[in-house]
Amino acid sequence: MKPRYKTLIGGTLALIGSSLFGGSLWLAGLWLGKYIVRLLFTIIPAIVVYILTYLLIIGGILWLLIS
Description:
Elements: H1 3-20, H2 26-66
Helix pairs in contact: 1-2
């Protein structure tokens, strides 16, 4: 990723996180923004795998019952 995009993303995360803290703690806002993004990229794939696993199990059971 190019450095200017990293700077742009970091600045955006700092603004979003800083607005959560009332606009004064931009460094804490940057940390919070990065933490939230990492958390989302961890939780979303886990939820998708969980749902797909149960769909596969339910689909397999229904396939056995129908055939």
